[in-house]
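Appendix B, record 7
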Amino acid sequence: MDVRAASKFMSYVLRHHPEDIGLSLDENGWAEISSLVARACQHHKPLSPKLIQEVIARSGKQRFIRSADGRYIRAGYGHSIDVDLQLTPRQPPNLLYHGTARQHLPSIFADGICARSRNFVHLSATEAEGRKVGRRHGRVVLLFVQAALMHENGHQLFQSQSESSIWLTQHVPPEFISKEEPS
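Structure tokens (predicted):
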């Protein structure tokens, strides 16, 4: 298995479906690396500790976190399963960014940005990262999120533990979203 395929497999298992390979995660999303390797190999996915380390090292977005003792791993964000990432609310920058496809704009401006099947809405700290994320959905539209104002109005925002350019929140109400940079 190459690094890209291993990263996709690990994302699938650690974020969404550990049960597909019989893997157990604790309440904080941690899995024993030895168990992940063994379960993956039983399901014809040749994962090794060395390959896992290479995935972690090459991941530009730091998708995975390894425990201090090196025995455990978890996805840093993007979960659709119920895990407690032990995040602490933080004061966000004034603006954060969300890239999306044009066809999603009517529902976003009616209902806000919703997590849907994920536990959190992901926001980017830079315009470039917001555009990059949005490209996955088609022709990108960059939205500006007034994050500091959201925070002042009682909405919790969390900075990802694994990637400082990613911010997480439960929901972005439409009144904090615009297609143009707010003045």
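Remarks on this record: The CA atoms of residues 38 and 129 lie 35 Å apart. The chain has a mean pLDDT of 91.
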